[in-house]
Specification:
Blueprint (H helix, E strand, L loop, with lengths): L5 H55 L1 H12 L6 H28 L2 H15 L2 H10 L5 H10 L4
Helix pairs in contact: 1-2, 1-3, 2-3, 2-5, 3-4
C-alpha cells in the first residue's frame, strides 16, 4: 500500500487494535463462561458426594439409622437426649439441602431443585421433621428458610 500517509497508517492501526481488543474481550468472556461451568460442576459434584457420604453413614451405622428414623417418625418416644442427637443428625442433612438450594438458586438448576424439594416435603411431613423445623428454622440462611416455609405442608 504505497502512498499511505502516517495518519492513514495510524487509522489502520487503530482499527486493527480495536478489532484485537474486541476479539480479546470475546475470548475472555468465553473462557469465563467455561470456567464458571466447570466450577459449577465441581461444586455440585462435591455436594452430591457429601450427600452420598451422609446416607452411607446412616447405612453403615444401624443405631444412627434407627435414631434418624425414630426422630422423624416417632419423636415422642425418644428421650430428650436422643431427640437432641436426632436433631443433630437432621442438622447435617438440612445443611446439605441448604447448600444444594443455594447452589441451584445461583445456577438456576430448576430440575435439580424440584427433586430436592420433593425430598424436603417428605421430610417435613413427618412428625419429627415438622418439630425439627419449628425448633431449628432460625439456624438456616433466610432465603432457604423462606423457601422451606413455602414448601412445608400445613397441618
Amino acid at each position: 500500500m504505497p502512498g499511505l500517509s502516517i495518519q492513514e497508517w495510524g487509522a489502520i492501526g487503530e482499527i486493527v487494535g480495536g478489532v484485537a481488543v474486541l476479539l480479546t474481550i470475546v475470548y475472555l468472556a468465553l473462557e469465563l463462561r467455561r470456567s464458571t461451568r466447570a466450577t459449577h460442576r465441581q461444586t455440585y459434584q462435591a455436594a452430591a458426594e457429601a450427600m452420598a457420604h451422609y446416607f452411607w453413614n446412616l447405612a453403615r451405622h444401624p443405631e444412627l439409622h434407627t435414631l434418624y428414623r425414630e426422630t422423624l417418625q416417632n419423636p415422642d418416644a425418644l428421650s430428650d437426649e436422643e431427640l437432641r442427637r436426632g436433631f443433630l443428625v437432621l442438622d447435617a442433612y438440612l445443611a446439605l439441602m441448604e447448600s444444594f438450594y443455594l447452589h441451584n438458586l445461583e445456577f438456576r438448576e430448576r430440575e435439580s431443585q424440584v427433586r430436592w424439594a420433593k425430598t424436603l416435603v417428605r421430610l417435613l411431613s413427618t412428625p419429627g421433621g415438622a418439630r425439627y423445623w419449628h425448633r431449628r428454622r432460625w439456624q438456616f440462611h433466610r432465603q432457604f428458610a423462606d423457601y422451606v416455609e413455602a414448601l412445608r405442608p400445613r397441618a
